[in-house]
Amino acid sequence: MSAVVRRLSACLVGSWTVVAMIVTMAAQAPVINATVEHRAVANGLAGEIQAVVQRGTTGWVGYRVPMLRGRDWRLNTSASCCGRCRLEPPTELVVLARTEGKAIVELRPVGVDCDIDAGGAPLVWLDSVRPDESVAWLTTLARDRTTTNRRVAESAMTAIALHADRSANDVLVTFARQGEATLKGKALFWLAQRAADQAMPAITAAIDNDPDTAVKRQAVFALSQMPKDQGIPRLIELARSHSNPVVRKQAMFWLGQSKDQRAVDFFAEILLK
Q: Could you tell me how far CA 60 lies from the centroid of its own chain?
């Protein structure tokens, strides 16, 4: 083999080594100070997590999936953070579940823009998790209405909403229509953030038909949170003519917070009559 060929071969090997290192790093947990055990998801995400839970040990199990983009979804996770920090908004969602006594006792959806310090705890890291499987597993947690798991259920709803996968839209619509009151309000809020076309029918149904006043309030608030002020025309309509005084009052309030010129024109019309 000539010297030129040997040098070329060495360069190619070096290039593939760098690529392999980049791929491996992308698959790793963004967690430091942890005893990490890597596992492949061979029998479905729910089955793999259940196998870890059944060990009965105290620790964490986690994975990463593509995260909803379009806004800066940095989350207050109460997790210690150190090491490398990124300036750009996160593009990947890390889901961390704390296991204890053969149960999941805590769930943290983390929009990662820096490394997370696990404080020396064991971590089972699941590689190559499919986003739709993640949404399906989190949906089972969100549906758990037991008192001890209520906080886990609410965190699961947030995690679902932050998935980039379209399956999250269908789950949020289902919860907005059929969920327990607290989760219904959260689903309405997140629908307004990510899917205006799907959100409007669910929000309208909640405002007009839901018997719970708290849900009606949440639905009106969800309108105010739609991106690019898409909910303003509907808020004006509600403030002008809805039969429920609570709905009218809430619509007025959120119009006042919007600083939208259409809201200003509406208030001027009311005051100058």
A: 19
**CB hemisphere CA count around 233 (13 angstroms):** 3
Of 273, 158, 176, nearest in space to 223 by CA: 176
**Are residue 35 and residue 135 in the same domain, yes or no?**
yes
Strand 114-117 and strand 31-32: the pairing is: parallel
Whole-number Å distance between alpha carbons of 34 and 31: 7
Measured CA to CA, the distance from residue 239 to residue 248 in angstroms comes to 4
With respect to residue 264, please indicate whether it lies within any of the assigned structural domains.
yes
Model confidence pLDDT, tens digit, residues 104-123: 999 999 887 767 787 888 99
Query: For the whole model, what pTM was predicted?
Result: 0.73
Domain count, the chain: 2
- Greatest alpha-carbon pair distance for the chain in Å reads 93
Whether residue 152 is found in the same domain as residue 200? no
154 and 213 both lie in a single domain: no
Are the C-beta atoms of residues 159 and 75 closer than 8 Å to each other?
Answer: no
**Of the candidates 165, 193, 211, which is a domain's last residue?**
165
Q: With contact defined as beta carbons under 8 Å apart, do 97 and 107 qualify?
A: yes
Question: Structural domain of residue 211, as residue ranges?
Answer: 168-273
- Residue where the block lists tokens 């969920």: 179
Clarify whether residues 188 and 272 are in a common domain: yes
Q: What are phi and psi of 266, to 5 degrees?
A: -65, -45
CB-CB contact of 152 with 106 (8 Å)? yes
Q: Is residue 221 one of the residues assigned to a domain? A: yes
- Reported as a single tens digit per residue, the pLDDT across 216-236 is 999 999 998 887 778 899 999
How far is the C-alpha of 223 from the C-alpha of 168, rounded, in Å?
19
